Amino acid sequence: MNRQQVLHNAEGAVTAKPVGVVGDIATVARRSIRSLLREPEALAPALLIPTFFFVVNIGALETFVERSPNIDYRAFQIPVAIIFAVTGISRASVLVIDIQTGYLSRMLVTPVRRTTLLLGLMVADVVLALGLSIVVVIMGFIFGVSFGTGPLGILVFLGLAVAWSLAFTGFPYTVALRTGNPAAVNSSFLIFFPFAFLTPAYLPRELMTGWMQGVATWNPVTYLLEAMRSLLSEGWDAAALSKGIAAIGALGLVTFTMAFRSLARRVATG
Amino acid sequence: MSQIRQAVNRESAISAHGLARTFGTKRAVDGVDLEVEAGEIYGFLGPNGAGKSTTVLMLCTLLSPSAGQARVAGYDVVESPGEVRVRIGVALQEAALDERQSGREILDLQARLYGLSAADRAAAVERAVELAGIGEAMEHRVKTYSGGMKRRLDLAASLIHGPRVLFLDEPTTGLDPVSRAQVWDEVRRLNRELGVTVFLTTQYLEEADALADRVGIIDSGRIVEQGSPTELKRAVGADVIVVDLPAAEIALAAEATAQLDAVDAVTPGRRGLTIATTDGAAVVGSVAVALAAAGLNPQSLTVRTPSLDDVFLLATGYRMSTANSEALNAINGSGSELQHSDPDTFSAGNKQQ
What we know:
By secondary structure, chain A is mainly alpha-helical. Chain A has helices at 3-10, 21-37, 44-65, 73-86, 92-101, 103-108, 114-142, 150-179, 182-187, 192-197, 210-218, 220-234, 238-267. Chain A is elongated and about 70 Å long. Chain B is of the alpha/beta class. Chain B folds into 3 domains: 3-231, Rossmann fold, CATH 3.40.50; 238-305, 2-Layer Sandwich (Alpha-Beta Plaits); 324-352, no CATH class. Chain B has helices at 3-8, 52-59, 81-85, 103-113, 118-132, 147-158, 177-194, 205-211, 229-236, 250-258, 280-293, 308-316, 320-333, 343-352, and strands at residues 12-23, 26-37, 41-45, 67-72, 75-76, 88-91, 165-169, 197-202, 214-219, 222-227, 239-244, 263-268, 272-277, 300-304. A 6-stranded mixed beta sheet of chain B has the order 6-7-8-3-9-10, sandwiched between helices. Chain B has a 4-stranded antiparallel beta sheet with strand order 2-1-4-5. A 4-stranded antiparallel beta sheet of chain B has the order 12-13-11-14, with helices on both faces.
């Protein structure tokens, strides 16, 4: 290090300053995506589980369900596979490690905007959810599924999947920020089961009976599935899409409120 | 003193008045007053649980004071935390690094978080790479690093934006002697060459003695002594005589030696007496005779120059080494609740795990 460099540093010519929201999100997201790409093994369950259920459900129920008119059960199951792939995936485990190792504190002593610490992680979640959704859609094409709404319908379909995934990440982030405990974050995956299974995942809602039909009526995933299925088989259905988007929005409102309140509490200095 | 230090010496880098922090009913920091001049290395010395880390967290804007005020690099830590953050560097107790990233990636991320322009960022990362001095390893993932390498990278990351004030919270705890010496050299160089003000917390007496221009001794959340190591030790006396005795004989021994000529102070401890005197060699004989006359038989009598531990003993009535082991025993006996409330206790708990 030469003398000029030393003086440059000592006199503060290197000017540190707050970056702004977009810059901070980009910085945090860059790190999150990089670590995501370094853990390809972590993606395996997110792909194996939906593939397994897709194949098993079709093998078990395709002939039976297709006795009802106008049901393409493979197209019917693709949204379920997507939900299984993208629900509950998040970088919350990374956040917990940052809390435990003190790396979060290191970032907190920089001028980074606190909310971007979560938003940057969510950008990585979006990238991951999009990648998984594309893989599942390709799997659907291989099994002969087609989109009645064409290429634009595929984009909307992927958009719904990613938006749902993002809305759901509020749960694991809330647990991570409240507890700072990796085991608790892993356990937060359990909330996936009522969301995913108390729905018309296997049969259309009109074929469901009793309490199950009642519960499914109140489950936001029901409306997400029906919106996604409409893109595959029915053509553009504004009502179904509106309900699906509203369901995602409602869930996102609840989970993001919880997550960002938890973040505020975690980084509070009081 | 270098020209750089003289140039920046006109202002206080850190000042605190009545700084306090309470966790529940426990007052972890209880009215700390301190002034650290720009360009100074200030050693903040105290046993585990004394309030060192809590004080650092408040000065670094990570924890709000319950009472009092503090200014760092010219800004109030509560009213202008953002201004403080761009002017300070912080290396907390454990090297806080993302083990899945390479050293260079961590430095680059840090530079981005501080908003350095692309040109400044490239230059700052290269400077930090050089500062860390870990060679090719900089391109490898941090999980492959030794403890010393992590600490050096941590230091380099905390300096990436050219901070005016550097907080080092127990930077050598857990390091081997070689790594510890390297960190000491680095701290001296940062201060000497870059003029960085260093606020260093430590529980190692020799560390404060070796590095600090001035030392503040904190005990039970209060600063009990403050001054240069030389001044503080001189205040104890020219020499100290350490008398090892069974606990039951300490009070009698103190009484027997307190009135001797040339004895400045007698401080009973838990394992004997510490006698401050202007001439240890001359007085040690008289001490031995007085103890024998009182029917006491000390296990050892040692004459040496005063240490900061003697300063601590005179200020608090007990030695730091004893306080540290008692604090660690207390942690072992307590549950995890304290670990989330008191950073000083938390740090001690970590070390025991």
